[in-house]
């Protein structure tokens, strides 16, 4: 069976779904092909921090109703080190901006619901997706659904299929240059049925390694511990995890980390990655398919949304005027933000993690940097404006 559409989108993560939603609002047709089931993508535990710009976009485009009701709006974070805690006041430092805590799978649920209510087409469990004719007159995507081979013919393809997807590898060899950095540590993350122990996120630097206190709802805590990239989860029974978290967060005084049943455990590796350019002929890469950041700056989802805003504007211009001027500059426009976000994510990671190879000089330097960030308004403001999200630049 052959289907035609204007924009074929591969992947129903935040990037693919938001792009399809924005295109719908602009009167541009799209079809999303997603390898996983609806249940799977709507329950996958990933990110949870939304920048101010992401929150505003979800609200402005009519998919922020539940976010408005159930999201937790934060005006700052705590940095803990040397037995003391320091608050970075985003709201005061950025002229009123903040972040929202709202789980990525809730954003995905809201966007899937919006697309399906508007009769948008999402093909779940699309197998063996293959891209062809990227530099021809029409791009083709073949896939299998319920064992039947199908073809989607489109003007353009948006590769929103994450780091391990099929889009980036479909670009001919030699077109893309990859920039990559691995980190010698990972995060052991848990989701726990425990009331958050603080109203805001706590980033802790400790002799035993980094720890992050976050949350997904008023009843669910999300906590992370710095660990080795090849950490064996079976060596971490629940009790050991809680003991280690208590050590890394607890201050001498009366602060207490709430504990509860652990609902999920995982080890997440850390990587910085950028593919340049983010376009080849009719294929545009967006989100994790083009770049990965270490999670310390809470930027992956937000960067995916920033990409598709530019891409949607490019398609709008094309379908309204026939001009490809903006589409031709898509990669250049996105990469400016991508590299600034890479820089911030790398900096937050370097600032807060314990580096095994550090010599005593490096340790003192790292503590001095934490001291500087928490005692200089200029330094705190730099952290704050990046964390809440850099403003969109005109293009
Ligand atoms: C533990 C963890 C914590 C994180 N915390 C944060 C945070 O706090 N803040 C933040 O901003 N970011 C965070 N991130 C990063 C964030 O989750 C990602 O950057 C985000 O999911 C990127 O969205 P995306 O749409 O580009 O890709 P994805 O969400 O990966 O979506 C890609 C989709 O494509 C589908 N797909 C893949 N291959 C194919 C194929 N061949 N055919 C069809 N479909 C395919 C996948 O099933 C998936 O649904 C975190 C990530 C992890 C792992």
Task: Tell me what the structure shows.
The chain has helices at residues 14-25, 38-41, 52-60, 65-70, 90-94, 104-117, 238-249, 300-321, 325-328, 330-352, 360-375, 377-387, and strands at 2-10, 30-33, 49-50, 72-74, 76-81, 84-89, 99-101, 121-123, 127-132, 139-145, 148-159, 177-182, 186-192, 201-204, 211-217, 220-227, 262-268, 271-276, 279-280, 283-285, 291-292. The chain is of the alpha+beta class. Strands 1, 2, 8, 9, 10, 11, 19 and 20 form an 8-stranded mixed sheet that branches. α1 packs parallel to α6 and α11 (360-375) packs across α12 (377-387). It is globular, with a radius of gyration of 22 Å. Flavin-adenine dinucleotide (FAD) binds at residues 10-16, 33-36, 41, 46-49, 104, 126, 129, 160-162, 165-166, 189, 268, 287-288, 295, 298-302, 304.
Shape: globular
Secondary structure tally, helices: 12
Low-confidence stretches: none
In whole angstroms, the N-to-C terminal distance is 40 Å
Rg estimate, integer Å: 22 Å
Report the portion of residues in β strands. Answer: 25-35%
Bound molecules: flavin-adenine dinucleotide
Derived structural class: alpha+beta
How many beta-strand segments?
A: 21
User: What oligomerization state is this entry in?
Assistant: single chain
Mean pLDDT: 96
Main beta-sheet annotation: 8 strands, mixed
């Amino acid at each position: 069976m052959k289907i035609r559409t204007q924009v074929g989108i591969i992947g129903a993560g935040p990037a693919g779904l938001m792009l399809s939603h924005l295109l719908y609002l602009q009167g541009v047709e799209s079809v999303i092909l997603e390898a996983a089931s609806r249940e799977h993508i709507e329950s996958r535990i990933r990110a949870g921090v939304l920048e101010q710009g992401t929150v505003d976009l979800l609200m402005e485009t009519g998919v922020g109703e539940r976010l408005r009701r159930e999201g937790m709006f934060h005006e700052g974070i705590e940095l803990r080190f040397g037995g003391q805690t320091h608050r970075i006041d985003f709201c005061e430092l950025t002229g009123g901006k903040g972040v929202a805590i709202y789980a990525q799978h809730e954003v995905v649920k809201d966007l899937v619901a919006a697309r399906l209510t508007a009769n948008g087409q999402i093909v779940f469990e699309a197998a063996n997706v293959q891209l062809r004719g990227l530099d021809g007159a029409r791009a083709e995507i073949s896939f299998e659904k319920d064992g039947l081979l199908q073809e989607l013919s489109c003007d353009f393809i948006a590769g929103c299929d994450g780091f391990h997807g099929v889009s980036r590898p479909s670009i001919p060899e030699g077109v893309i240059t990859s920039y990559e950095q691995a980190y010698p540590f990972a995060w052991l993350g848990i989701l726990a049925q425990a009331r958050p122990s603080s109203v805001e996120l706590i980033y802790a630097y400790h002799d035993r390694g980094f720890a992050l206190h976050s949350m997904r709802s008023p009843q669910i805590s999300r906590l992370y511990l710095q660990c080795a990239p090849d950490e064996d989860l079976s060596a971490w029974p629940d009790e050991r995890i809680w003991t280690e978290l208590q050590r890394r967060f607890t201050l001498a005084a009366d602060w207490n980390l709430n504990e509860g049943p652990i609902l999920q455990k995982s080890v997440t590796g850390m990587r910085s990655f950028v593919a340049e350019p983010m376009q080849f002929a009719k294929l545009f890469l967006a989100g994790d398919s083009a770049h990965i950041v270490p999670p310390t700056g809470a930027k992956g989802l937000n960067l995916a949304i920033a990409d598709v805003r530019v891409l949607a504007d490019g398609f709008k211009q094309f379908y309204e005027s026939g001009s490809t001027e903006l589409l031709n500059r898509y990669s250049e426009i996105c990469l400016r933000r991508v590299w600034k976000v890479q820089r911030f994510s790398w900096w937050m990671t370097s600032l807060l993690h314990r580096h095994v190879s550090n010599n005593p000089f490096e340790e003192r330097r790292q503590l001095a940097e934490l001291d500087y960030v928490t005692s200089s308004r200029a330094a705190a403001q730099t952290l704050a404006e990046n964390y809440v999200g850099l403003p969109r630049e005109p293009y």
